[in-house]
Amino acid sequence: MKHCRSFLAVTASVVLVMLSAVSGMGMSLTGDTLDLGPSARGLGLGGAFTALVDDATAVIHNPAALGWQTGVGLSSFYARQFGGITYGSLSLAMPWFGLNAAFVDSGLIEGDTPFRYASQAFAAAAGVPLGPFGFGARWRYFRTSSPSTGAGWSLDPAILLDLESIRAAMLVESIASQSMTYASGAEEAFETSVRIGVAAMLSPAPDVWWNAAFEVVGLLATQTHIAAGLEAWLGGLGARVGFDGVGPTFGLSVRFNGIQFDWAYAMRSDLGNSHRASLNFQF
Q1: What is the rounded average pLDDT of the residues 36-57?
Q2: Angle in degrees, CA 237, 240, 242, rounded to 5
Q3: How many CA atoms, within 13 angstroms, populate the side-chain half-sphere of residue 81?
Q4: Residue 33's pLDDT is what?
Q5: What DSSP character marks residue 42?
Q6: pLDDT for position 1
Q7: Does the pLDDT value for residue 246 go beyond 80?
Q8: Residue 180 pairs with which residues in a beta bridge?
Q9: Greatest alpha-carbon span in the chain
Q10: Contacts of the segment 180-184: beta carbons below 8 A, 24+ positions apart
Q11: Does residue 84 surpass a pLDDT of 80?
């Protein structure tokens, strides 16, 4: 009975890691433990950021947006949940090119058999503009280091149509991939999934912006959900609200001299509420 309780505790902890990593969005693709998203701003919008993204996190959210990147952008993200699960992400973007590194670590889960889940991801992305269109692709490498080692990769093309006040985007995840292969010889295939998003941007007065975004996530995959968000900017102050397919999300931002701090709050009836923050620099 004691061993049974330990097994259930470990299993529950792993499930928490998986669910927290995908922000409760119900996705089931291999490598989703690193699919939190690299920004608190995106989370505050419910994850509906594929069409709206305009910062260094385009490396992950939509590489096609890198075609309009100006200067050098740096974005960092860190979250700690459930008393030990940590997630971190660092994105670097410049005109037409970007890099990202991320990790998830459960920490040591005590029990009769101590357990730890840890995985890492690395991404390289490129995007080019052609008139109102942006075309891009990202290559992501996934690795697990505990409880067993494994690795795999995926290639994800993207497109973005920018009509100034209206944007439309599509990101195809894992159009080509190498299955996660573990030391035991087991394999897990990446599932092809499509994200389609639209965004509207309105500036009724100088330094005032209203943004709305809507997104369908998981087309062609086993699970599909919708995400949506509204955002308002008044000078260097921003606020947002969204829905990520599971519950409401909220966010605030402060921007000054190329530095932006974003905070997000996601309400969860199953795993509890969570806070996340990210810091962005634009040079």
Answers
A1: 91
A2: 170
A3: 26
A4: 54
A5: H
A6: 40
A7: yes
A8: 188
A9: 67
A10: 180/30, 180/31, 180/142, 180/144, 180/150, 180/151, 180/152, 181/150, 181/151, 181/152, 182/144, 182/148, 182/149, 182/150, 183/148, 183/149, 183/150, 184/148
A11: no
Q: Please give the residue that has the higher pLDDT: either 16 or 211.
A: 211
Phi, psi of 68, rounded to the nearest 5 degrees: -110, 10
Give long-range contacts, CB 8 A cutoff, 24+ apart: 163-168.
Answer: 163/132, 164/201, 165/200, 165/201, 165/202, 166/198, 166/199, 166/200, 166/201, 167/51, 167/52, 167/198, 167/199, 167/200, 167/201, 168/51, 168/196, 168/197, 168/198, 168/199
Eight-class DSSP state of 239: E
Look at residue 211 and tell me whether its pLDDT is greater than 90.
yes
Beta-carbon contacts of residue 164 (< 8 Å; ≥ 6 apart):
201
The answer, as to whether pTM is greater than 0.70, is yes
**What six digits make up the tokens of 235?**
């000078």
- Distance between CA atoms of 244 and 189, rounded to whole angstroms? 25
| pLDDT for 39 beyond 90 | no
Task: Give the pLDDT of residue 93.
Answer: 97
Residue environment code for 190-213, b if the CB has 16+ CB neighbours within 10 A, otherwise e: bbbbbbbbbbebeeeeeeeeebbb
- For residue 117, the model assigns a pLDDT of 85
Among positive and negative, which fits the CA dihedral 123, 171, 39, 28?
Answer: negative
pLDDT at 137: 98
- Which residue, chain included where needed, has tokens 């308002």? 232
Backbone torsions φ then ψ of 158, nearest 5 degrees: -150, 160
Cβ partners under 8 Å of residue 19, min gap 6: 270, 271
Q: Per residue in 174-188, pLDDT tens?
A: 999 999 999 888 999
Which domains, and CATH codes, for the chain? Answer: 2-282 (2.40.160.40)
